Amino acid sequence: MALSLNINGRNHQVDADEAMPLLWVLRDTLGQTGTKFGCGAGLCGACSVHVDGELQRSCQVPAASVVGRKVTTIEGMRDTALGKRLLDAWADVDVVQCGYCQPGQIMAAAALIAGNPAPSDTAIDEGMRGNICRCGTYPRIRAAIKRAAGAGA
Predict the structure, then answer these.
(1) What residues contact 120, with CB distance under 8 A and at least 6 apart?
(2) Helices (H), 18-136
(3) Angle of helix 138-151 relative to helix 102-115, nearest 10 degrees?
(4) Rounded distance, CA 24 to CA 28, Å?
(5) What is the pLDDT of residues 39-87, one digit of tens each?
(6) What global pTM score does this model have?
(7) What is the dihedral of CA 34, 29, 20, 51, to 10 degrees?
């Protein structure tokens, strides 16, 4: 079935089953591989994207459910002021080890800061809950979020 999707501000016509998870449309059909497959059950956060500004686990979102909505992936974050601040902070703090979870971490951090421009440690911990980093870079993730939030002030 043909679906019309708005991904990172661009309209795409994709031939996909309505029930196909958005994750696979992004990766396999559109070639946007920044969004990662982690657990397939919406538990790890690696596949996080924004749908109309709200954080969603793309492995759990049927592609048809985002027709007429705006989807932002990690690739689209480069084009936003908040995304640029987060990417710069991630590099400045040297957050990344293996890097696999980081696109989802950045998407969650963007949603957090968009809703709370000056998050406390507790708010960061709560806002980032459900995003798993096997390398354990949580202290650096928190520091980068604080840096990005402060840069927006």
Answers:
(1) none
(2) 22-24, 74-77, 81-93, 102-115, 121-127
(3) 40
(4) 5
(5) 999 999 999 999 999 999 999 999 999 999 999 999 999 999 999 999 9
(6) 0.95
(7) 50
